[in-house]
Amino acid sequence: MPYIQKISYDAVLSRENNVLIYEKKIDFKRSFEFFKISLFPFSILKVSSFFLINFIPVIGPLIILFFQSSSRGLLAHKRYFKLKNFTKSEIKEIYKINKPSYMAFGLSALMFESIPMLNLFFIFTNTIGAALWVVDIENNEPIEEENFNEIISIQNSIS
């Protein structure tokens, strides 16, 4: 996620009073990950097949949107997963449980971002929408006793 999108994502979290997540915010240094050898052949095959499918009139772009939607939806919560320090197995479990929601969000995000001239605007609205979705998730989660005490102490220190 680019820096400006991280700022808007964090601003939404702080504005919506999601103190527990926002206070645990860690500044992540950029890490340049080079190609992973095991995934490299698969990614070339995937990109080239999407490129060829894109040439099918009308149906091709829709097929690509459908196949990329679930990963785009999951990518929208990447910052949330980092802030909550989730492991890869926890992320996979969350994804399995909420796959239709991630696909719906990803599909709508990709469709809006594919509109020429307005895509930059929709990138930010999708980022804000993902952050608001996180706030909804956190508000619907039952609060444990230790987390409740931590939230109260953080809110008292802010006041």
From TrEMBL:
Of the GO CC terms on this record, one is: prospore membrane
Q: Which UniProt keywords apply?
A: Membrane, Transmembrane, Transmembrane helix
Superkingdom of this protein's organism = Eukaryota
Query: What is the topology of this protein in the membrane according to its UniProt annotation?
Result: Multi-pass membrane protein
Q: Which PANTHER family would you find in this protein's record?
A: OUTER SPORE WALL PROTEIN LDS1
Stated name of the protein = Uncharacterized protein
Q: Where in the cell is it found?
A: Membrane
Q: Which spans are transmembrane here?
A: 34-56, 102-124
Pfam families per the record?
EI24
